[in-house]
Amino acid sequence: MILRRFTQHIKEQNWFAVGLDVIVVIVGIFLGLQVTNWQESLDEQSDARKYLSRMNDDLQADLKNINHRVVFWQQVSDYGKTALVYLEQPNTIQEDYWKYLLAVFQASQIAPFEVTDITYREIQQAGHLSLFNNQKFRQLLAEYYSFNEGVSAQTLLKANPRYREHVRGKIP
């Protein structure tokens, strides 16, 4: 319909109408592009909110896991202290071998820890880190999630101490 009117205006050499038709088409294309950009922006904001919600769930799981680890390591530490008391007072070992053995064995427990990074890895692999405009926020995310791969994490949270190897080697 617009094309037919446009050609009719050209045949009639009605240049004002031709110009008006061109302007209407240009404005229509411009508005269409603006609506598309606006919709893409809304979709990106929605995706960012979904990612943030999922990362919050991951961080809450990490926090819960850390709290469990604190309790666990306190128990391991208590068993270690008990084992040391037995070792410092050898006469007490003879009184209760099983408590001593249990203390030595339990003091060799480990509980490796890794952050829950499923959502962050998905965001990285999909190239969606740019959904988060705040550079400081992106930097903090990278620091938190790169901890898993660092030397300190390997040494502190995933190590198999020599004490454990020794004790577990002696006590099947």
Task: List its traits.
172 residues, mainly alpha, 80% helix, rod-shaped
Describe this structure in words.
This protein is mainly α. It is built from 8 helices and no strands. The protein is rod-shaped, with a radius of gyration of 33 Å.
How far apart the termini lie comes to 88 Å
Main pleated sheet: none
Low-confidence stretches: none
* pLDDT averaged over residues: 85
The outline comes out as rod-shaped
- How many β-strand runs? 0
Helix/sheet category? mainly alpha
Query: Residue share in helices?
Result: over 70%
The number of distinct helices, counting runs of at least 4 residues, comes to: 8
Amount of beta strand? under 5%
Helix and strand element order: HHHHHHHH
Radius of gyration: 33 Å
List the helices and strands and how they pair.
Elements lengths: L1 H10 L3 H74 L1 H6 L1 H10 L11 H9 L8 H12 L4 H7 L4 H9 L2
Helix pairs in contact: 1-2, 2-4, 2-5
